[in-house]
Design a protein that fits this description.
CATH topology: Zincin-like
CATH class: Alpha Beta
Largest sheet: 3 strands, mixed
Oligomer: single chain
Structural class: alpha+beta
Number of helices: 6
Distance between the termini: 22 Å
Helix content: 40-55%
CATH architecture: 2-Layer Sandwich
Number of domains: 1
Strand order of the largest sheet: 1-3-2
Radius of gyration: 14 Å
Order of helices and strands: HHEHEEHHH
């Protein structure tokens, strides 16, 4: 287990976002990144994750490919990274930063409409 304060963790998330390739970052619209301590019960339902399992991050929104002409004037979608479970898994600061980076990339994939099944197919899970 490796712990940092909320501000340090948030900085790790923002660093992971800035490290995304330009072709992805330039296509991000109406999306915000936030940090919460842990997943909420509706996150388990949204992701079809059994209760008691660990969720490291979640995409709360409508993926880009599913946004139609009526998608306008809406609140931003969110990618939420969960601090406590990631810290529990981390061995040190470098490991925590690497895990945060992986989860940010994973959730960005969902934003772009890539499913967990497809991520497994391409060995990106």
């Amino acid at each position: 287990m490796y712990e940092v304060d909320h501000d340090q963790f948030e900085a790790m998330v923002m660093h992971a976002v800035r490290a995304l390739p330009d072709e992805f970052r330039q296509r991000i619209a109406n999306l915000e990144f936030t940090v919460e301590d842990r997943a909420r019960s509706d996150d388990y339902a949204r992701t079809s994750t059994p209760a008691g399992s660990t969720i490291l991050g979640v995409y709360r929104g409508i993926p880009l490919p599913k946004r139609g002409a009526g998608y306008n004037m809406t609140l931003p979608d969110r990618i939420v990274i969960f601090q406590q479970p990631l810290q529990r898994l981390a061995r040190d600061e470098s490991d925590l930063a690497e895990r945060v980076h992986h989860v940010v990339k994973h959730e960005i994939a969902h934003y772009f409409g890539i499913s967990d099944d497809r991520l497994r197919e391409i060995d990106a899970y």
